[in-house]
Amino acid sequence: MSRRLTIVAATLLVYLAVAGLFLIAVGGVARRGEGGAPLFGPRVAIVEIEGIIIDVDDVVRELKELRDNPSVRAVVIRINSPGGVVAPTQEVHDAIERLRAAGKPVVASLGAVAASGGYYIAVAADQIYANPGTLTGSIGVIMQMANFEPLMKKVGVDYIVVKAGQFKDIGNVGRAMTPDERRVLQALLDDVHGQFIGAVAKGRKLERDDVVRFADGRVFSGVQAKDLKMVDALGGLEDAVLAAGKLAGLPSPPSVIQPKRKFSFMDLLRNQFRGSAAAALLRPSLPAFKTPLYLMD
Hints:
Elements: H1 2-31, E1 43-50, H2 57-68, E2 72-81, E3 84-85, H3 86-101, E4 106-115, H4 117-122, E5 127-130, E6 135-137, H5 149-155, H6 179-204, H7 208-214, E7 219-220, H8 222-227, E8 233-234, H9 237-247, E9 256-257, H10 265-272, H11 277-282, E10 295-296
Helix pairs in contact: 2-3, 6-7
């Protein structure tokens, strides 16, 4: 009987010791999150936007989750993108505005490149941080199409199109573009360019005429962009996180939710073949000869 009591007592002591160690560990973690800030409670979340902007469903869904998450008090959008397709770019821009409307400050952190569509997304934020050497701006819209008619004639290929509607085959690679088609496409691009200018003027609180002066497709460094009031301050990701925490009234430095990163087999292959000809083949690209895409890139 005494032996059984000894075993029970020893087991209970081991259990209490393990429970005590667990509580100590949890308490330590709770007291020290990233940078010494509290791990539990109010936090700043980081969302990454990388590469050409085409499919943004995951980003928009993540922004909505952060909007609905009561522990997230502010968000930093880390942008490394040369731009992309217009409509998906505008979806992310609008999702950021909804995040702000929910009372959560948003700070954009521009990485190596945040041009055209990348900058379009950034102007939805409360503040924009850029590195001195960041390439940004490129406020413009472009549509590129090939004309293979001379080549087809040389090799004896006839490109036949049957259509109903004068402009249904606009951008046809088998013939030269007509003046009327060029006018239609130019009007389309001018309209989207105007939307871009309007978004910059609204987001940066600038007069539209002031934006028009530099909205000619030029690329600027971070220093130049600051002089033009395209960005608020020069700094990296850490500076943007501190600014977001300050806007949300969090202690400095704030606890951070790191960006979600999904495993991608294609990314793995690109890393393996980095610097080789194979890497260029694996790089994501836009469809070349389907419906013409007007791009911010």
